[in-house]
Write a structure and sequence with these properties.
Number of helices: 5
Number of strands: 0
Strand content: under 5%
Helix content: 55-70%
Largest sheet: none
Oligomer: single chain
Length: about 110
């Protein structure tokens, strides 16, 4: 169990770091201000000094328009977050259109 806890802890830290690096110029202070989170707490998560509780992880995930379970997926790609299986053809087509639109918006933003 200790190994699993370490892997989860490292994954969460890396994913929080990835989000802050991608969307907040690698600055936990900027991320905290933009996302209305506590600066010191977010900095602790960013450096791995502390680990968020499930409730805190939900707040961080929500601040980035994600769900907490997505923060537990190793190698989170903020531009293409993990999703649950799409069941219908319409869901798959809608997701493809949304993903394409998001990619185009990112190009405009960058």
């Amino acid at each position: 169990w200790t190994y699993i806890a370490l892997v989860i802890s490292e994954t969460v830290k890396n994913n929080i770091r990835t989000l802050i690096d991608k969307f907040d110029d690698g600055k936990p202070s900027l991320a905290a201000k933009r996302r209305k989170l506590k600066q010191r707490t977010l900095a602790y998560y960013y450096t791995g000094e502390r680990e968020p509780t499930i409730e805190q992880l939900e707040l961080v995930a929500k601040a980035y328009c994600l769900e907490a379970w997505q923060m537990l997926v190793p190698g989170l790609d903020p531009t293409n977050p993990p999703i649950l299986s799409l069941q219908t053809k319409e869901e798959r087509e809608l997701y493809a259109r949304l993903k394409s639109t998001f990619a185009e918006l990112q190009k405009i933003k960058d």
